């Protein structure tokens, strides 16, 4: 009975989110609470909800202050010299321009926001692409590759996986560091190859050079210039490296949420010492922070009820009978291979909070650590998959900024993103993250 109730709960959750009948926030709260009441758990539902929210509190805190921190140092101009240097260095050769685009997008995506990455990278590089004559689909692809391979601890998929399975983010991320390094090498190789191919198409390879073409330049608005603090660049850089380095190297001793809290406070003091200015910077980035925090807290309601009522365990026990024991160790590897295409079918909330817990519990029943299941999912599901998924606004943002059709973008970029996911999956096997 519990297994059937759990299956109906997840099916209803997925249907409500995918058909947009309910927002993820509403669906993650209303549907599991209703299911618990139908299951006869009554007032005990509140206890399950509270437990779920308490388990997610550190993740929510980290994400909120990560958004604030990166937003503040970006407002202060931390990335400006990097962007300008890249634009000045790439020159007019596509074999440099395309990898430069990838590098720029990768650096900007350190804040974990795909939308911000595309909003900065594409307008900065598009004039240069048009002047040289480079296919705009390549610009969309290069930016997508950089954002897609990034699954740093404060990115959405990583946080959702941690929240859904109640696993510490460092435990998930640290073994994936060399895997991500392989992915980065792959995307830069692809970017260079795409640039070289375009260079040959434009006959630049034979000429060795072309007529002088003005490099891409960025024009800041008056409001953006007023926020810049170029004289404090090195302070912001040292602060950022200290926060990230401490979080990665000492995550077991110092909570990541605390590092971002301290980083945010110091960034405000260094760059915007007046109280009014600090309030304005917080207000400027609060919308994005609160939106994700509310989703994560709602996810705590869902996961708390699914686990507290025993529905998740009952579903997994029922599914175990259909999985041959000999295939169980291969679940993470198989999930890694299919995780990127799954981005075309499931939005991040419905997958990580609806599908992944069931897969993880089935694997756990068969002796496979849920940690490996989370890592398999992160190799593609809404990481390499999100820039081409029709279920994410960022995909349409890429197409709109580049002035290309969605179908053209998907057809051109999908194979490279899928290849990146597959390469990282095999790298995960090679590094012993999970068995083949």
UniProtKB/TrEMBL annotation:
State the name under which the record lists this protein: Citrate transporter
The Citrate transporter-like domain, residue ranges: 14-374
UniProt superkingdom:
Bacteria
Bilayer-spanning residue ranges: 25-44, 56-83, 103-126, 138-156, 176-196, 233-251, 257-275, 287-306, 318-338, 388-407, 414-434
State where it is primarily located: membrane
Q: Where in the cell is it found?
A: Membrane
Q: Keyword Transport, does the record have it?
A: yes
**InterPro entries registered for this protein in UniProt:** Cit_transptr-like_dom, Citrate_transporter
Q: How does it sit in the membrane?
A: Multi-pass membrane protein
A Pfam family the protein falls into? CitMHS
């Amino acid at each position: 009975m519990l297994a059937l109730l759990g299956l109906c709960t997840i099916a209803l959750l997925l249907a409500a989110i995918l058909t947009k009948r309910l927002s993820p926030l509403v669906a993650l709260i209303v549907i599991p609470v209703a299911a618990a009441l139908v299951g006869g758990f009554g007032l005990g539902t509140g206890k399950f909800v509270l437990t779920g929210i308490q388990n997610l509190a550190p993740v929510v805190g980290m994400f909120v202050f990560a958004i604030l921190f990166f937003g503040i140092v970006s407002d202060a101009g931390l990335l400006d010299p990097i962007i300008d240097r890249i634009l000045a260095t790439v020159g007019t050769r596509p074999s440099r321009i395309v990898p430069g685009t990838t590098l720029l997008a990768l650096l900007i995506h350190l804040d974990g926001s795909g939308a911000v990455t595309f909003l900065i990278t594409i307008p900065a590089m598009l004039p240069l692409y048009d002047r040289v004559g480079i296919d705009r689909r390549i610009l969309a692809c290069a930016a997508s590759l950089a954002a897609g391979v990034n699954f740093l601890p404060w990115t959405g998929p990583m946080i959702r996986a941690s929240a859904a399975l109640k696993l510490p983010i460092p435990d998930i991320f640290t073994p994936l560091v060399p895997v991500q390094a392989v992915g980065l090498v792959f995307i830069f190789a692809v970017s260079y190859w795409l640039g070289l191919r375009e260079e040959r198409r434009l006959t630049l390879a034979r000429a060795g050079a072309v007529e002088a073409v003005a490099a891409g330049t960025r024009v800041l608005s008056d409001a953006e210039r007023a926020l810049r603090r170029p004289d404090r660049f090195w302070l912001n850089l040292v602060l950022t490296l200290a926060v990230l380095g401490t979080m990665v190297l000492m995550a077991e001793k110092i909570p990541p949420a605390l590092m971002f809290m301290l980083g945010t406070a110091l960034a405000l003091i260094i760059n915007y010492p007046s109280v009014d200015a600090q309030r304005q910077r917080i207000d400027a980035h609060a919308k994005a922070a609160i939106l994700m925090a509310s989703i994560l807290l709602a996810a705590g309601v869902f996961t708390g009820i699914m686990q507290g009522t025993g529905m998740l365990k009952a579903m997994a026990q029922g599914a175990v009978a259909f999985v041959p024991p000999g295939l169980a160790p291969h679940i993470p590897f198989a999930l890694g291979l299919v995780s990127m295409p799954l981005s075309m079918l499931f939005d991040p909330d419905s997958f990580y909070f609806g599908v992944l817990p069931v897969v993880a519990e089935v694997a756990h029943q068969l002796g496979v650590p849920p940690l490996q299941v989370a890592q398999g999912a992160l190799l593609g599901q809404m990481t390499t998959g999100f820039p081409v998924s029709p279920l994410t606004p960022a995909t349409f943002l890429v197409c709109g900024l580049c002035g290309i059709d969605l179908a053209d973008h998907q057809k051109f970029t999908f194979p490279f993103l899928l290849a990146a996911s597959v390469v990282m999956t095999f790298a995960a096997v090679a590094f012993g993250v999970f068995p083949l």
